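Example record used in the benchmark description.
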Amino acid sequence: MKNKEVFTTGEVAKICKVSQLTIIRRFDEGKLKGFKVPYSRARRIPLEYLIVFMKHNGIPLRYLVRFMEEKGIPPEYLTDFMREHKIPVVWLEPERLEIQDSPEQKPASLRA
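Model output (structure tokens):
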């Protein structure tokens, strides 16, 4: 896979380490921007909105980097995408990408 610019709610939930229902609620509340697939209940979240959502909710962008690496997308794709869309690349915090997270760790702003 060469790139990934649009995500399903399931993929976003996996990236953000929350339930799919939480992502759907945030989408429906307008806290996560995206679009609905015509003639469907499916929702899609463009990469630029996902990055901003993660940053504003304290979700480490290294989760996104890991997800993209699992899909065979090199980290350089994300930095290039961020530069192209004028998103601060410093948000990636490269020195923190190697930090291991505990599996139960969730962003405080998304805890129910």
